[in-house]
Design a protein that fits this description.
about 200 residues, Translation Initiation Factor IF3, Hypothetical Protein Ychn, Chain: A, 2 domains, 5-stranded parallel beta sheet, 4-stranded mixed beta sheet, 9 strands
Amino acid sequence: MREARIDVRNEVCQDPANKVKGVLDQLKEQNIQVTKIEIVGDCEKALAEVENFLINQGYIFETSGNESEFSIVVKSKEEKKIEELEEKPIEIIQKAFFLKDDKMGDGDLGRRLLDGFFAELSRSYKVPRYIILSNRAVFLAQNDIAKSLQILERKGVEILLCKTCVDHFMIESKIIVGKISNALEIAEVFMSDISIISL
């Protein structure tokens, strides 16, 4: 048995999640048994990408430190739980999540909370009918969280972006998920029988 250490610091790694995936895949393919897998990094982007990847893949892990110097210890993988989840049909619940910001609360913690929320939601077999992005929330359709939103979109969630907001921030060319909508379409969702939940 031995330990594995994956270095995703800026100076040695430009694609942290992909590097972690490559090492974990290699360990599995070569049937290498390790007593500890530690991932070390030094920036907020790497932390968010690696944590989202581990969550989406069903890994159980523990993070220590902060965005400028963090350590993630991978403990195990919930293989059985994921297999059971994949066998269940997707159930679209008649609810709409309405977001006005690109984080859930203040600062870095608010961003990480929203990252984690959408990562978990993307793994669920129960998903909302709509996700509506307004004001600064439209940035979610172009950053790291967009990966989770893409999974949700494939599961049947309609992701609507406020056109006025997209135009205001001039980010239309960077949008990678969802549909740029208008006030009328969004108002129709609000006026329907669907439950609206503000995040």
